[in-house]
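WP5 quarterly update. Target: Chemotaxis protein CheA. Source organism: Pontibacter oryzae. Length: 552 aa.
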Amino acid sequence: MKSREQEYKEIFIAEALEYFDALNRHISTLEKQPEDEQTLAEIFRLLHNLKANSKAIGYLQISDISHKLETAFSLIRSKELVFSDEVVTVLFDGIDMLGELIHNVDNPKFSEPDPILLRNLDIIVENLSESTIELAKVQKYNTSKNLSLSELVYIQIKKLDHMMNLVGELMIDRDRIISISRELGNDDLKSVSSHLYRITEDLQYSVMDARLVNIGSLFNKFPRIVRDIAAAENKEVNLSLSGQDIQIDRNILQIITDSLLHLVRNAITHGIEKPEEREKKGKKAAGELRLSAQSDRDNVLITLQDDGRGIDMKTVMKKAVERQLVAAEVAKDLADNEVLSFIFEPGFSTAKEITEFSGRGVGLDVVKNAIDSIGGRITVDSEKGKGTTFILQLPTSIAVKGALLFEVDNIYYAIPLIHTDQVVALDRDELHEVGDVIVANLKGETITVVYLNELLNAPEANMNLGDKTRLNGQVQNIIIVSYNNRKLGLIVDKLYRQQDIVVKPLSKPLQQIDIYGGVTLLGTGRVCLVLDVPAITRYFINMRQGRGDGKE
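C-alpha cells (predicted):
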C-alpha cells in the first residue's frame, strides 16, 4: 500500500506537469495576443497554485522559481513590465526550468538550476528595466528540447465503474468455468481455469486499487468545518484526526461525506456543552472531538467520538413511546443498545431548539440510509455525561462483496459479511421459547432467533416464529447478523463457505421485494439470492410490532 507521502507526491507531479503544459500554451498565446487579460490571469493563477503546492510538499526550488515567474507576470499584468521578445525568452526558459525540476524531483544527480537564467529572472523582477534584459540576448539558449509525458493519468470514476462491472461479469464466468473443469476432470482445462482464476483475481484487485483514495482527502476538510460550527454555537472544540492514510473506494467516500458531516454537526450542536456548562461539570472548557479511521479485515472503520453530554436514554425511550415506536411496557425492559436504535428512526429528534446547523427535522435516519445503501453498518454507544461514539463500518468496495453462502429449503442465499457477527451451531435444547419468539443466550447476551424459512415463506396467518417444533433436526445452524444496534439470529438449513460475490440488481417485479438486496450467480450456474440484512431486521421488528408490512 502506498504511503500518504508517496500518494501526495504523485498527485503533485501529475498536477504540476499539467500546469507546465498549460503554461507553455498560454505564454504562446500571450506572445501573439499580449493584451489578452484572461490568458494572463490564467498564467498568474497556475503559477500561484504551483508555488503554493510545491512549497507545501517541500519542493522549494520549484516554489522559488514559480514565485519569481509569478512576480514577473504580475508586473506584466499591472503594465509595469512590457511583454517584449527578450522578456518572453527569459520567461519561456523559466518555464522550461520548472519542467526539468518537476521531471527530476527524485533525481539526486539533477544539477542546480542555471544561475545565469536565475539572474535574468531576478533582473526582470527586481529592476523593472527593459535595458537590463540585454543579458538575455547574449545567452545561448538550447533549442533542442526533448518531449516527455507524465507517467500518471487521471481517470474518470465512471470509467473505473464500467471496468469494475466488466470485472464482475468476468468473475462470474470464471467461477462457472472452474466449476465445469472440476466436473469434467480434464487436466488441461483445470490448468487453464487455475490460470484464469489468478489473472481475474489480480485484475479485480488492480481495478479496486485504482479506485482507492486516502480517507484524509475527506478528514482534512473537517478542521475548518469544526471551527465554523463551534464558533456559531459559541463553543470551544478541539478536533483530533488519525488514520488519514487509510484507503477506501472513492465512491464510498463520496456517499458517506454528507453523513459524516451530519454526525460532526450533531456532536458539536447536541453533544458538546458550552464552556461554562462543561466547567460546572468539572470538564475542560473545550470539548474533545476525535475522528479516526482504521482497517478491519476487508472493511474500514470510521470512529467519531465526543466527550459531551451523551445521550439521555430516558428521554429517547419517552420519545419512542410517544411516537408509538414501542409499547411502554416493553420499553422499560429494553437494553441500552436497543434504546439507542430508536435515534435512527425517521424524524426522530430530541432537540429542544433550532440552530443554524441542527434541529430542522433531518434526523439520523438519513445517515443510516446512506450507510445501508453501500452495504455498511453504523453503531452507536453513549454514556450520559461522558460522551457518545459513532462507528461506521464500511466496505472497501461496492461492486465486490465478501459474503456467506448458505441454503434454506433448497434455495441458495448469501449474506454480506459486513452484517455477519458470528456463526454458531446450537442444540434445540439451547433455544428457548419466550412469548412469541425463540431466544438464545450467547456469552451472556440474549438474542432473538428466527427460522429464516418461516420468516421468508410462511403465510402470515400461519406464522409462529416462537414455535420450536417447526425446526428441522436437533442441531441448528444460526447466523448472527447485526443492524442498527440490534442483533438477530437466522436459523438456516445448510452453511457453505465465504466467497467474494458480484451483486446484480433483481429484475422486475422482484426488485420491489425489500428483503432481497440483489442476486448473484454461483460457479455451479445456480442463482443465489442476496439478503438485505437491514430490510430483514426491519421486517421482523415491524411484524412483532403489528405493522406487518415490513415498512418503516
